[in-house]
Amino acid sequence: MAIRMPWLEVAGFLSFLVLGGLLLEDANGIGRAAPVAPIEIVSFGPTSVQAGEMFNVQPNGESAMWVRAASDIPKDTRVELGDVIIDIAINGSVATFLVPRNLARYPGTLPLVFVGMDGAIRSTKPANFEVRAAVATGVKIVDFGPNLIHRGQPFNVQPNGNSAMWMRASVPLPAGVRVRMGNAVLDAQVSGDLVTFSVPLDALQPGAAVPLVIVGGDGAALSDTVSIDVVD
């Protein structure tokens, strides 16, 4: 097999290192680089940030991340975060890079992988960078309904047969908030400052005012408390 180089042609089995790959000759005699060994991501940081907030701020005002591989990272490597390919600075097995602001603007999970200059994935498996929903605090419940419920009687019945309530907050709320109704924590749907949720009728006890409060995913209160009357 002949191995062709820009300045030299040698017969025999020789190897030539080109950006971490061997320059080989295919059936047509055209030089091509052998695939780079898969790169394992062993750690990275930060692993989670809050949507819309800057992190690891650099002198130029941009956010930054780092990622460590199990072995030295080839110099022709970049990273892909979400669907954006980003240039990196490499120091042995560690790479650092700036994160475009729009990537961490909204909640979600962004896969992080190493890629080649052609965009081909080089990581053994992706790491997951979490962008958490922004947490609202000091929220006021400005209105809600209904404010009176008869025990055991359905109300605001939905197509699935469940009863439902709504609350209007003083500010738009992030996705992922829930509602604590008495001792029950209920999943909710959020649209701006409007929160709607299904109500389990068997959780309501008559003759008492049942407290309602908007809470975060961890159960911590985000709003003030209002009460709904339950009667027989």
Strand order, main sheet: write it out.
Answer: 7-14-13-9-10
What is the total tally of β strands?
A: 23
Can you tell me the CATH topology of the largest domain?
Immunoglobulin-like
Helical/strand content category: mainly beta
Distance between the termini: 91 Å
What key phrases describe this protein's structure?
single chain; 232 residues; mainly beta; Immunoglobulin-like; 3 domains; five-stranded mixed β-sheet; 23 strands; 47% strand; elongated; disordered N terminus
What topology emerges from the helices and strands here?
Elements: E1 2-4, E2 9-11, E3 17-18, E4 21-25, E5 31-33, E6 41-45, E7 48-50, E8 63-69, E9 77-81, E10 84-86, E11 89-91, E12 94-99, E13 108-116, E14 127-132, E15 141-145, E16 148-150, E17 163-169, E18 178-181, E19 184-187, E20 189-191, E21 194-199, E22 208-215, E23 226-231
Parallel strand pairs: 7-14, 16-23
Antiparallel strand pairs: 1-2, 3-4, 4-5, 6-8, 8-12, 9-10, 9-13, 11-12, 13-14, 15-17, 17-21, 18-19, 18-22, 20-21, 22-23
Describe this structure in words.
The chain is mainly β and 232 residues long. The protein has 3 domains: 2-33, no CATH class; 41-132, Sandwich (Immunoglobulin-like); 141-231, Immunoglobulin-like, CATH 2.60.40. The chain is built from no helices and 23 strands. It has strands at residues 2-4, 9-11, 17-18, 21-25, 31-33, 41-45, 48-50, 63-69, 77-81, 84-86, 89-91, 94-99, 108-116, 127-132, 141-145, 148-150, 163-169, 178-181, 184-187, 189-191, 194-199, 208-215, 226-231. It has a 5-stranded mixed sheet with strand order 7-14-13-9-10, with no helix packed on it. Strand 18 (178-181) and strand 19 form a beta hairpin. Mean pLDDT is 82; it is low at 1-31.
